[in-house]
# Entry
Amino acid sequence: VQLQASGGGLVQAGGSLRLSCAASGRTFSRYAMGWFRQAPGKEREFVAAISWSGGSTYYGDSATGRFTISRDNAKNTVYLQMNSLKPEDTAVYYCAARSTWPPYDAGGYDYWGQGTQVTVSS
# Structure
């Protein structure tokens, strides 16, 4: 599976962005999908994940209440809607795919996208 993340950019605090991650191949629905982020000088942080069918979602503390993960298996795409953005959300955001659950450990992911930069100005 090859993953291509997009949708990052520069936004003011309080604004919104929607990230997309397009997957190649016909087995997209067999993978749970996750989003992680990494800010300069910090470790990679779990943001959100969604199960194969989209029926279950899981959020990190920083995302709960502000971010929403969704997927469209017909389009081989997973989304991350980010609202009420804060400067501390500034990071490179990565999408990833895995065949197991629960989804919060980065080491359990089999495939990673290249990342998309999100910058939130104050």
The chain has a mean pLDDT of 95. The two ends are 37 Å apart (CA to CA). DSSP finds no helices and eleven strands in the chain. The first strand starts at residue 3 and ends at 6.
